[in-house]
Write a structure and sequence with these properties.
alpha/beta, binds flavin-adenine dinucleotide, FAD/NAD(P)-binding domain, six-stranded mixed β-sheet
Length: 457
């Protein structure tokens, strides 16, 4: 069996590890990655910022569903820290990258039974079917790889630009469109003021990293709502007793708020309710009508995101301090214009009631991964879309996939033997980005591939 995994970030790497551990028959795994840096780490865990903590407790970042302590134990064995590391520490994302790399290397070394795993450093640009019914992957460097099964683990596409092409031209080198590419703060001098577009977790890391670099000029962050991710705080487990799927978005909102009140009466925090919703989030999402999904995306999404994707308490303290010292300010609105002036760039923005402007020297796009695969820079998606092999979802947040991550074509049929793992499955599963969701998908896809192969043997 020849298995090609496109993308060697966390999703592709964890899928390869599962295959290496579970395959009992000879196989060749091709792990294909287009980035030269950060192999096996992807965008999240190859960070070069001065401040880049995981946004999740160390005790919840294991690669394995059946061994929750794996990452925690790896830290204890491999890392020295002046602070005591507990299951609830927020350790470095770079450490997590090292953990991914050593885990796949260990899995390759330990594997026998004729299973080979080759890392291929080039982009997959297109996939074709061979007359024998296999897949032929066309690589950017001209190579071709034949595979019986393909896994798309292409992850987080760079954020879409939310300023005009003209504005991007005016800004030139002073604009960073992709904050996960190298270190976007590298060439910013301490006296240059910075505007970050977006007020989510990526923005937080950039603002605190600027502080760690002794940046002195003012930093701004702008988003439509100006809301920040809430901080983590330990809160014991809570059990939701009722069935809460299959309801309208308004009922769902009211039910969740009721659960929060119930949790409060048991001295529990809203965070316990969010954690309790985690195992049923996909079921709830899939049961919503298209109308409710649209309403969620337009009105409720931001509130879900800031409560579900929280920041470490240390980041919260740093941000609060910067705000109180007037070194950092959050602005509300959308950018309407960017003009070059003597002192920097005059950025005009407006919200529902007001128009305002600010002068800055640098702008960094921190608006989060793009789910519009038609507009993204990845030629693979343009090609698969034009062939009808992948289908955009109605809400433009991803592509249509089935229960096991199989691709659903534009004609409605399953594309045999191609699976997606990770953020690509967001449209169908809603929460499909964090390691806990990814590790489950990776394991299930590996089991599915192996059982299909056994059935045909
Ligand atoms: C800054 C940041 C911090 C995060 N922090 C956390 C955290 O603390 N905890 C947590 O659980 N989750 C976190 N996440 C969520 C994160 O999405 C997942 O944990 C995980 O890293 C996603 O991995 P991935 O492999 O799917 O995507 P990616 O990391 O984007 O990797 C996909 C890889 O595929 C490659 N690729 C794409 N197209 C092609 C092609 N055509 N050919 C070849 N290669 C290709 C890309 O170069 C890339 O390396 C974070 C995300 C970000 C962006």
């Amino acid at each position: 069996m020849r298995i090609a995994i496109i993308g060697a970030g966390a999703s592709g790497t964890i899928t390869a590890i599962n295959l290496l551990k579970k395959l009992q028959q000879p196989a060749s795994i091709f792990l294909i990655e287009k980035r030269n840096e950060g192999l096996y780490r992807g965008a999240a865990y190859s960070s070069q910022l001065d401040y880049e903590p995981l946004n999740v407790y160390a005790g919840r970042m294991s690669l394995y569903n059946d061994n929750d302590d794996d990452f925690y134990n790896w830290i204890l064995e491999n890392k020295k820290s002046c602070e005591e590391i507990t299951h609830e520490s927020f350790v470095s994302r770079r450490w997590y990258g090292e953990y991914l790399e050593t885990s796949i290397k260990d899995a390759v070394v330990k594997k026998q039974n004729g299973v080979l795993c080759e890392t291929v450093s080039t982009a997959t640009e297109n996939i074709a079917k061979t007359p024998e019914g296999n897949y032929l992957l066309k690589q950017e460097d001209g190579r071709e790889i034949t595979a019986d099964v393909v896994i798309l683990a292409t992850g987080n596409e760079k954020p879409a630009d939310v300023i005009s092409k003209e504005a991007i031209q005016v800004l030139g080198e002073s604009y960073v469109s992709n904050p996960w590419n190298k270190n976007p703060l590298e060439n910013i001098s301490a006296e240059e003021s910075v505007l970050l577009i977006g007020t989510g977790l990526t923005m937080v890391d950039h603002v605190v990293s600027l502080k760690k670099k002794n940046h002195t000029a003012k930093v701004f962050a702008l988003s439509r709502n100006g809301l920040l991710p809430r901080p983590h705080k330990h809160s014991p487990a809570y059990k939701i007793e009722r069935e809460i799927s299959n309801e309208s978005i308004e009922q769902l909102d009211a039910n969740i708020l009721e659960e929060v009140e119930k949790a409060k009466s048991q001295n529990l925090d809203w965070r316990s309710v969010i954690e309790a919703l985690r195992p049923v989030t996909t079921k709830i999402w899939q049961a919503l009508s298209d109308e409710s999904k649209s309403a969620f995306l337009n009105k409720y999404r931001i509130y879900w995101d800031i409560h579900r994707h929280r920041m470490p308490p240390a980041s919260h303290n740093e941000i609060s301090e910067l705000i109180s010292e007037n070194k950092f300010e959050i602005l509300k609105g959308t950018i309407t214009d960017v003009l070059k002036t003597e002192n920097g760039f005059l950025v005009s923005y407006k919200d529902a009631s007001d128009s305002n402007s600010v002068i800055v020297n640098r702008i960094i796009n921190c608006t989060g991964p793009s789910g519009d695969y038609e507009k993204c820079d990845n030629p693979l998606f343009k090609n698969l879309l034009s062939k009808g092999w992948i289908k955009k979802d109605k809400h433009n947040i991803g592509i249509v996939t089935g229960a096991a991550g199989e691709l659903i074509q534009q004609n409605g049929n399953v594309l045999e033997n191609i699976f997606a793992v990770g953020p690509l499955r967001k449209a169908m599963e809603w929460e499909s980005t964090a390691i806990r969701e990814i590790r489950t998908q990776a394991e299930q896809v590996a089991i599915q591939i192996i059982s299909q192969a056994n059935a045909h043997a």
